[in-house]
Amino acid sequence: MAHSDHDNxxxxxxxxxxxxxxxxxxxxMWLFLSTEIMLFSGMFLAYFIFRMLYPDMxxxxxxxxxxxxxxxxxxxxxxxxxxxxxxxxxxxxxxNRLLRIFLLATAFLGLVFLGIKAYEYYEHWHExxxxxxxxxxxxxxxxxxxxxxxxxxxxxxxxxxxxxxIHALHMTVGLGIVLxxxxxxxxxxxxxxxxxxxxxxxxxxxxxxxxxVFLFPLLYLLGxxx
Amino acid sequence: xxxxxxxxxxxxxxxxxxxxxKSWLLTTDHKRIAILYLISISIMFLxxxxxxxxxxxxxxxxxxxxxxxxxxxxxxxxxxVVMIFxxxxxxxxxxxxxxxxxxxxxxxxxxxxxxxxxxxxxxxVAGVMVLWVLFNGGLDTGWTFYTPYSSSVSTSEVLxxxxxxxxxxxxxxxxxxxxxxxIHTMRAPGMTWFRMxxxxxxxxxxxxxxxxxxxxxxxxxxxxxxxxxxxxxxxxPALGGDPLLFQHFFWFYSHPAVYxxxxxxxxxxxxxxxxFTRKRIFGYRFVAFSSIAIAIFGFLVWAHHMFVAGMSIxxxxxxxxxxxxxxxxxxxxxxxxxxxxxxxSIQFSTPMLxxxxxxxxxxxGGLTGLFLSALALDVHxxxxxxxxxxxxxxxxxxxxxxxxxxxxxxxxxxxGRMYSETWAKLAAxxxxxxxxxxxxxxxxxxxxxxxxxxxxxxxxxxxxxxxxTAGASILAVGMILPIFYLTSSLWSGKRAGKNPWGAAGxxxxxxxxxxxxxxDETPVVTVGAYNYGxxxxxxx
Lengths: 226, 540
Known about the structure:
The complex is a heterodimer of chains A (226) and B (540). Chain A has 226 residues and is mostly helical. Chain A has one domain (37-220): Cytochrome c oxidase, subunit III, four-helix bundle (Four Helix Bundle (Hemerythrin (Met), subunit A)), CATH 1.20.120.80. Helix content of chain A is 78%, strand content 2%. Chain A has a two-stranded antiparallel sheet. In chain A, a hairpin with a 3-residue loop joins β1 (129-130) and β2 (134-135). In chain A, α2 packs parallel to α9 (196-220), α5 (96-126) runs antiparallel to α7 and α7 (153-184) runs antiparallel to α9 (196-220). Chain A is elongated and about 75 Å long. The model of chain A has no long low-confidence stretch (mean pLDDT 92). The A-B interface holds A 12-16, 20, 23-24, 27-28, 31-32, 34-36, 38-43, 45-46, 49-50, 53-54, 131-133, 151-152, 154-155, 158-159, 162, 166 and B 102, 107-113, 173, 177-178, 180-182, 184-186, 211-216, 218-220, 222-223, 226, 229-234, 239-242, 245, 249, 517, 522.
């Protein structure tokens, strides 16, 4: 069995069989994602510490978020996870046309997400909410000076920018890979040579979506009821 | 390059499988990548050693002789950064682990050969950045980058260094990932978990730490970087930040990183002691699981670096207790190695000499670690030379001795040549003596109150400092000797044959140097590790 497998160039020379290669690839991606979880958990920890230190400041600064756009983006991203699942499923059942359509749809939704995010950043810039570079928001500066809340609202926006920019970088990398796979899939190679790459980018894409599912309530939905 | 000259008219092996610089720089062969790492980390080690020599020279007298405090700050910082990130963390995993893991489990390569090469390139990019910093102003924060000094005060090259450390982390993460997947999925038929050599258990534990700890250092460096660029207070209390948060973040990686440095050495020691006593390691499963236990406990003790930093006393109590717990799996290892010696056919070849050195020095280093986990005593010795001596016993007496034991043990396998046993034994002895003369006085001078990280000191400490500097000169000889006899063995060394030590293990069943894909036929394993017969004595 091992020998017949090695006639297929998609099997690396160092693997004994496709099954072993698949097992290794999937495990590698899960381990990579565990590294990513540790990377993001560092940021989440910093976020929670500052939220505990300066609860009023977090609520005050949070009012400047555009909850509508954030909600739309959350929906867009969850939709993109659905199309990603459908892409993997299409590869599994051997439908190359649908595979390419769903990959393209995933990339499109990813692009919409990044576009909306960019627009939000543009709004923050206009409202003077960019710590260090353009911190001119009169309301927050006045409240801080009056001592209405403890701590500088710059810290909230700093965490917001660090977390969402790193998330957006992950989106951009994922987008690039999805588009590459869409392009490479045009000759139907993933149906012939195995679809490990599709499955792996699927895992990655879902992970990046899940991170957003945590970011959205933590960064947008603080104290809106009050 | 020296290595291709080994390509003599003999059986095809990984060294003569391709020639020219390009065949090395674009290789995906784990054995060649190990050689690339060996060359790069040796350069780092020599640089770091040179800085250590300068430090010891400055400390020969109580006054400032060679440099002022600014230069001295840059000197010990560079020594720390280069030695820890450039040498100790990659050392055994990237060189010996890379070379041996596929050989020991009977595989053709690591799971992701191209990722393996990528991790070397990442290491090189970060390494070049660190060197750039050295020659362009340096860094004066200490290797720990404590805030707010690093984020708001220091005018030295904090940004490029944090970036370099961030980048170097990926090299470590990818190596760890590669090792874990390889050990899980690529073991030869019959190579069950409990038939694996203990070196693999310790590499597995090390990889877990690399995988789960390093990203936290990454995000810490990134936050520090952003804080310094944008002037927002994450860590600087003047801006509303929390300086203790930085220390928690930093040590969450950097304490487990100590185990990244020592666990691989423990793996080497298991192999060497088994081979040179001709016995199975006593309590194999205990030694195997103690590696995993060290990796897990290692993640729970970080704040013992912060007992005097203003942390809550309740937290300090718990961290003190947990730090004591790490001593248990470490002691299990030391006792089991000692028990393995009992009634063994002990042979004091060079690797065994280093291993014996390791046993004694690691024990001292470990026991003085218990002094430091004691809350009250720690207050007295924090930031003194006692701490410096403690971690050098672990990192040089433990990690470097283990690395040298492993390098000498597998050198015949890597190069196909034997080195001069006489010179090598001499070097091992000189290293052991030099090390003790250098660092033992530092325990005393630290306990008497000499603080670390100053270029001047009170005159009453001078005798002990002279002793330490004299020891460092001896140690330097011990470190330089191997460069000569190991290099010359490449040309004039006796051919090693498959198994010069008569050791057990799959790596000894293939040619030296091994063929490009390690084994002509995938081996089938039927016995456990260290399967030494009762009167085992076959050499060659």
